[in-house]
Specification:
TIM Barrel; 5-stranded parallel β-sheet; 9-stranded mixed β-sheet; 3 domains; Urease, subunit C, domain 1; single chain; alpha/beta; 18 helices; binds zinc ion; globular
Length: about 525
């Protein structure tokens, strides 16, 4: 079909590409154009051109991504938006010591960093002691108050009593006035009906996905961690693995009940598992995904891989955290295990457990998968289309991570080809989410106002003071509304409406508002903490 070149049409814009990855066909396609409906933020039409040439002159609203590698927006299937690197502060200390305000401000920065790194969707698996704040942040992003990936959240993870919580020795009796009171790190529930009630509670609180801990290192207080000074160390503790092994938190019946109840609510289920034996229980219960790498290579492994492949269970191995936490030998074992599972037909989703290290570096997970020997095309599927399935597919309320009419217009362009350049995922040149452009030519597109005064008043004061008139500024939310009713490429490419031109003005190469709010820069190593 020919492209829509109606110059009077303000409802669509075209994104022209010369190399586009299609996760369904698992191949790179040449000369595809994507028409985006600027009012709905959805893909209106996809068509392949005869050549790399454009069918006609480029309209001012259209976007030319020829020469770049174009992909659906990335999906990180395992994140914690409220956490920052463990190396900056242990995550248990973040939960214990950081104020809710600090954690929220950090999360806002994390969301920006992720979006600019090409991540248009996050499957966020637990606030870690911040209640349902992830649902609130999700809603703020969806309302256009602050930029970020589309969040699909778990709120609090389910765990059995006494199993996943902030540990302290300064607690003589739970719930008493003696000793510390700490925020809870999970929603504790035990027994078939109690776990069903907990799932209902999570759904009622706004969860998009149910997460539960199938196992955890829950005996830590039997041999408490070492501290500095006299009396700070146990004199003869058992070795590390004996000291605090990952143990099942739930019986098979409880896991079955969690999944059954989540199915009634049409919500996907993610199971944290460190051991293959408990992972196998979760897989048999029918979970959507199993999270993490497994600590052992026990006899269950063959059985588990077969069961996952047979059932279509998605494995989110979080190899990035294995790289952070394990020695080289163990990390290599993890990579081999994932490659082996892939070879035997297990579906993989790229979820980095981002938050254990800083947001914006999410692509490390895809890099490691490629290093493990998984073909680039399959890794791209794990980072896009399978991520959508991990989010529940259509049950998520959206279609993303693949190309079709009506899907969300989430588009990422790289300056390098991941088939040739192992660091290609770090070279994000362009980001569109829901039809709105957030990054162009490798630079953030700033939608923050230079002034809060109405346009006319700002113009008057500029004239009076003899300064050059800055383009009128509009609040971010208005910018999004204006852009969505005019052209979502307005921040990048300008347009005739006042709202459009004001955003265009903020595209100065070194915009003050950009540095003020701490946008991620070109540097991959920038730390937004
Ligand atoms: Zn996690």
């Amino acid at each position: 079909m020919p492209p829509n070149n109606d110059p009077n049409s303000r409802e669509t814009l075209a994104v022209h590409t010369s190399l586009l990855f299609d996760p369904i066909q698992k191949s790179f396609l040449k000369n595809v154009s994507v028409e985006v409906n600027t009012k709905t933020g959805a893909i209106a039409r996809l068509y392949q051109r005869d050549s790399s040439h454009l069918p006609g002159p480029l309209s001012e609203h259209d976007i030319d991504l020829r020469g770049k590698v174009v992909l659906p927006g990335f999906v990180d299937s395992h994140t914690h938006i409220f956490l920052h690197s463990d190396k900056e502060r242990l995550h248990s200390h973040q939960m214990r010591d950081e104020s809710p305000v600090e954690r929220t401000v950090r999360a806002v920065n994390h969301a920006r960093a992720a979006l600019l790194a090409g991540y248009t969707t996050y499957r966020d698996l637990g606030t870690e002691a911040l209640g349902n704040a992830d649902a609130n942040l999700r809603d703020c992003i969806n309302r256009g108050l602050t930029p970020g990936p589309r969040l699909l959240v778990a709120t609090e993870a389910l765990a059995s009593n006494g199993s996943y919580e902030i540990r302290t020795e300064n607690r003589l009796a739970r719930g008493s006035a003696v000793g510390l009171t700490l925020p809870r790190a999970s929603d504790p529930a035990d027994g078939v009906w109690a776990v069903r009630a907990a799932v209902r509670r999570r759904v009622g609180e706004g969860a998009d996905v149910i997460k539960f801990y199938a196992d955890y290192r829950r005996r830590v207080m039997r041999f408490p961690p070492d501290t500095e000074g006299p009396g700070g160390r146990l004199l003869f503790p058992p070795d590390r693995r004996e000291r605090n092994p990952a143990l099942p938190l739930y019986s098979q019946e409880e896991m079955d009940a969690i999944v059954a109840e989540a199915r009634l609510a049409d919500v996907p289920v993610a199971a944290h598992a460190a051991e293959t034996s408990t992972a196998l229980m979760a897989v048999r219960a029918g979970v959507t995904t199993v999270e993490h790498i497994f600590a052992d290579t026990s006899r269950c492994r063959d059985e588990m891989v077969a069961e996952m492949a047979g059932r279509g269970t998605i494995w989110v191995p979080t190899l990035s955290t294995a790289e952070e936490g394990f020695d080289e030998h163990k990390f290599e074992c993890c990579k081999r295990a994932v490659k082996e599972a892939f070879d035997r037909g297990v579906r993989l989703a790229a979820g980095a457990d981002t938050g254990v290290f800083n947001h914006g570096r999410n692509c490390r997970e895809m890099e490691i998968m490629i290093e493990a020997g998984i073909p680039v095309e399959d890794v791209l599927v794990a980072g896009t289309y399978t991520g959508w399935h991990a989010c529940g597919g259509d049950a998520s309320g959206f279609r993303f991570g693949w190309w079709d009419e009506g899907n969300r217009a989430d588009i990422v362009a790289l300056d390098a080809d991941p088939r040739e350049d192992p660091k290609a995922f770090r070279k994000v040149s362009f980001v569109m989410k829901d039809g709105l452009v957030w990054k162009r030519d490798g630079r953030p597109v700033d939608a923050f106002p230079a002034t809060q005064w109405p346009e006319e008043e700002a113009a008057e004061s500029a004239e009076e003071s003899g300064t050059l008139r800055e383009p009128a500024a509009i609040p971010l939310r208005s910018a999004l509304c204006a852009a969505s009713t005019a052209s979502p490429s307005a921040p990048s490419f300008g347009g005739p409406t006042p709202a459009t031109s004001s955003i265009k003005g903020s595209r100065d190469p070194t915009p003050a508002a950009t540095s003020d709010v701490g946008w991620e820069t070109d540097s991959f190593d920038v730390n937004l903490g």
